[in-house]
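Re: your question about BatD family protein

S., sorry for the slow reply, the queue was backed up all week. Below is exactly what I fed in.
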Amino acid sequence: MKVVKHIYILGFILITSIASAQVKFEAKLSKTTLGINERLRIDFNMNQDGDNFNPPDFSNFNVSGPNQSVSNSWINGVRSYNKTYTYFLTPKSRGTFTIGQAEITIAGTLYKTVPSKVEVTAAVDKPKDPNDPNFIAGENIHLVAEISKTNPYLNEAISVVYKLYVSPTIAVDNWNEIDSPRYNDFWSQTINTQGQKVQNGKYKGKDYRYLVLRKTVLYPQKTGELNIEPLTLNLSMRVPTNRRDIFGGALMTRVSKTVSAGNNTITVKPLPENGKPADFTGAVGDFSFDVSASKQALDASESLQIKVGVKGSGNLKLFKLPKLSLPSSLEVYEPEHAENVKTNSAGMQGDISDSYTVVPQFKGKYPIPSISFSYFDLKTKTYKRLNSDEIIIDVQNGPLNTPATTSENGTANSNKQVVTANNDQFAFIKTKTNFTKVKPEYFFKTTLFWCLLLLPFLAIPIAIVIRNKKATRDADVYGNRIRKSDKLAKKYLSNAKKSLGKKEAFYIALEKALHHYLKAKLHIETNDLSKDKINDFLLNKQVDAQVIKDFEGILESCELARYTPIDIVTMQEDYNKAAKTISLIDKQAR
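Result:
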């Protein structure tokens, strides 16, 4: 019995050791479905330590991490080990993505996780968490979609203006668009908003700064409830905290946040059926209609242009013009369509036209009958019909279009006009020439010949003079250093202009530009650039005290910009002030 008991104990110990030796390496996702404005957490857990950890490709996400944690404990003589690599992922766009396999080597064996699928949807409403560091940013920055009309008619223009409201306490460093709305049930056109300036305004009764990011004009193509998808941005900003620096100013913490304008729904009304003309093609707006001919008197085989045009404001690109009806004796070509339409916040404005090329074949007078154009007037909410005037085309010279007659035997006589030969029909072809004998010219011993021959001999002394000047310039080490500093100052000032909106890069480039300019202008080295020495040097150069004060103020701004929030307007003012101050020093320095 004792032997059997020992066998049971030995088997239990063996099974326990085998179970504890089993390696586990797996990926755990916090969620498999998330909005584009949410974050995803993924943990790679292992129960034994390993080497050469290789994460999967996160190209569809913005990645934060990895954060590594290790726990090692002994409970009742049994060792428990756990190691975790944690990543936080923010999606770049909507769609279904596969997070591939992670790899690690444990005890000489390569282990891989199982791939996982993640579905990214449109932005969702996130619950408020006062303890979340992003909560302060969320309460002080808002992306709003302002819709001009939520109950339009079919094919009536509406505008959507996206504004970014930022509290004065928040400093936005940069942003990028990560998801654009898809206007599937609309004809849409985006209006250029480049060059827009930051403005002051109110949002929900509070003072904000705001910037118009995008304007879009929409023409609904369906009736009923239509969804306008949100615009989603990822912003990098600095938010004030409760901590203070040694000067009493609030310390800022950097936050990356995704904001969305939210979904919006509009209700599109159908156009009324009562009074709708039979030839209505969908024109909605306020229009005028005209049919005109380029000329009304001409000869046979000459051409004229008949133009059918509509002018006004409305959905000009979304309906067809009425067709022109002409007598069969006029030869008509396919019309050429032309559009001169501009789109602004109120919708399309301009004119469209179809131009018909018409060639009459016979003499006579041909009426161009009146045609009509109907549209729905948004002001009166009724249908209107416009009619063109009748046009008479007078073909003055040409063959007569006589009807065919029937002879006694039943055959048709066309009574065609006899064509008589004209002896002058080829008079435009010249049969005699006016050729004259040309005297041959030779290049040898001409003026150009002698100039080209003597040119190398003249170029040699010029090249010697240029070479000597270059050698003298290269030997001037001090002058070359000054010229180099001057070039660097211009270069960094140019770099500062390119970096407007990126605070750190802008002020670093601006400070370097000022330092290199001083080296070029005052002939001093970098280690001499203290405020007192700068003041003394500029005073010795007879520069005004106010200009010196402005120059020192710009240098102080470059230093303080590292600790205080700066917006793009302040950066532009500092850049203009630096350029103006450098120009004044150039004029005043002696």
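Residues 134-268 form one domain. Helices lie at 2-21, 134-140, 447-475, 477-498, 503-522, 531-540, 545-560, 568-588.

Happy to talk it through on Thursday.
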